[in-house]
Amino acid sequence: MGTQAQDSAVFRGQLLAHFGEIPQCDFCKHIHADNDFTCDAYPDDIPGKIMTNVHDHTKPFPGDHGIGYEARAA
Predict the structure, then answer these.
(1) What does the pLDDT read at residue 32?
(2) Would you tell me how many other CB atoms lie within 10 Å of the CB of residue 29?
(3) Which residue in 64, 63, 58 sits closest to 27, CA to CA?
(4) What is the pLDDT of residues 6-20, one digit of tens each?
């Protein structure tokens, strides 16, 4: 097990290999820069259905407190 950043990079690579696409969270302004698996909507852990793009988080999802996907500034 490496650092949190290294572990996050490995897991993201596994997601990409398995699902063939980059998680929508990577482009959201609410993602926490210090932890790729938390955000303003889910400060403890982003649900798998959102992380794997099964659910389009421009639409409400249980527990998101009304915070959905918003593209971050380029």
Answers:
(1) 93
(2) 11
(3) 58
(4) 666 666 667 666 666
Is residue 64 pLDDT above 60, yes or no? yes
Strand pairing partners for 54?
A: none
Domain that holds residue 50: 1-74
Query: Is the CA virtual torsion 22, 28, 73, 70 positive or negative?
Result: positive
- DSSP E strands in 1-74: the ranges are 31-32, 35-39
Q: With contact defined as beta carbons under 8 Å apart, do 14 and 51 qualify?
A: no
Question: Comparing C-alpha atoms, which of 55, 2, 1 is closest to residue 24?
Answer: 55
Checking phi first, is residue 20 left (phi over 0); if not, alpha (psi -120 to 50) or beta?
Answer: left
Domain count, the chain: 1
pTM, two decimal places: 0.73
